[in-house]
Amino acid sequence: MKYYLVAGEASGDLHASNLMRSLKGLDEAANFRFFGGDLMQAVGGTLVKHYREMAFMGFLPVVLNARTILKNLDFCKRDIAGYSPDAVILIDYPGFNLKVAKYVRRHLGIPVFYYISPKVWAWKEYRVKSFKKYVDEMLCILPFEVDFFKKHDYQVHYVGNPTVDAIAQRPFKEETFGQFIGANGLDERPIIALLAGSRKQEIENNLPSMLQAADPFTEEYQLVVAGAPGIDPSFYEAYTGDGHGAVVLFDQTYRILSQADAALVTSGTATLETALLNVPQVVCYRMPVPRMAYWAFKHILHTPYISLVNLVCGREVVKELFAKFFTIENIRKELYRLLKEPPYREKMLTHYAELRRIMGEPGASDRAADIIQRAIHININR
User: Does the chain have fewer CB atoms within 10 Å around its N or its C terminus?
Assistant: First the structure.
């Protein structure tokens, strides 16, 4: 079979590469052509365009690069038509991929699969109409998305979550606290982990307040910052070198969390990772013009929470300190409760156990590949 995949950012490259491995396990003759990245290229096939040439985030960068985006889109359509695959697989990246889906469905008649639904349950709900019209099978990685799409009379699949897979397959699973601190030159104090985001702006906004909030605990605990991929170590020194005594470790996020007593975490996949690794956490996210940002959250977004942990569980499991609630005092107070109030801490860990049950077992990419294979064969035999 021939498969054409489109991933427009680093996370898409990761998830698409795992899906490609699973497809190869089911189809020895699998041939891949794709917009993607290094991880997909390592699996095999033809990399047509790297996501670095496509990753324009935010309103202004998109406007300034509109001509490049349109050229990439036109090239992608022509390349799919020339390759004539048995399936087109789109990974997140909705602004671009929905246009690809529309073209493929209208003009080529090739089955379209969407792996990892965009967050239309939070905003741009109108896009569901396009999914129903142009996507044959939607493969979701968040369990509550099934009920969301059902409201729109759209049947989708929950295949599991790649984060569950990544944590199950992580290296150093059996590492002890002593081994970890010995390998990284840390002392014997318990660890408070700081996950301040993956982009420079997020780190600038969140890390200084996180460090200040955790500072009173540093006699008893040591602060370990999970360094983001692609961020130069010198960038962190402006914040961690200011008397906080925090250590920055790169490429060790799961190892850090596995040994941490508590964590301060920005919103995003990191909140889910922290919960799956059973670490009590405070979700912290600083926003500009905080009162206006909170108003927008309450009146524009269609979601009651910002963290995946709370969204999956359907209740407040972890405290979300964002917008007007993001203050050093609030973060410090919540961190104290996690570290010093056992009943409060245990309640969160009990909810984490429920989260793991809801998320299900590892095997997301295998289940997605199986659905894609079955659908292709049904289409061929019609």
Answer: C
Q: Return d(Cα 199, Cα 58) in angstroms, integer.
A: 13
> Cα torsion at 338, 341, 346, 351 (round to 10°)?
-50
Number of domains in the chain: 2
3-state secondary structure the chain: CEEEEEECCHHHHHHHHHHHHHHHHHCCCCEEEEEECHHHHHHCCEEEEEHHHCCCCCHHHHHHCHHHHHHHHHHHHHHHHHHCCCEEEEECCHHHHHHHHHHHHHHHCCCEEEECCCCCCCCCHHHHHHHHHHCCEEEECCCHHHHHHHHCCCCCEECCCHHHHHHHCCCCCCCCHHHHHHHHCCCCCCEEEEECCCCHHHHHHHHHHHHHHHHHHCCCCEEEEEECCCCCHHHHHHHHCCCCCCEEEECCHHHHHHHEEEEEECCCHHHHHHHHCCCCEEEEECCCCHHHHHHHHHHCCCCCCCCHHHHHHCCCCCEEEEHHHCCHHHHHHHHHHHHHCHHHHHHHHHHHHHHHHHHCCCCHHHHHHHHHHHHHHHHHCC
- Compute the radius of gyration of the chain from its Cα atoms: 22
Q: Is 155 left (phi over 0), alpha (psi -120 to 50) or beta?
A: beta
What pTM was computed for the model?
0.88
Q: Answer yes or no: do 267 and 195 share one domain.
A: yes
- Please give the residue range of the domain that contains residue 176: 168-359
Within this chain, do residues 204 and 156 fall inside the same structural domain, yes or no? Answer: no
**263 and 343 housed in the same domain:** yes
Interval 9-47: pLDDT, tens: 888 898 999 999 999 999 999 999 999 999 999 999 999
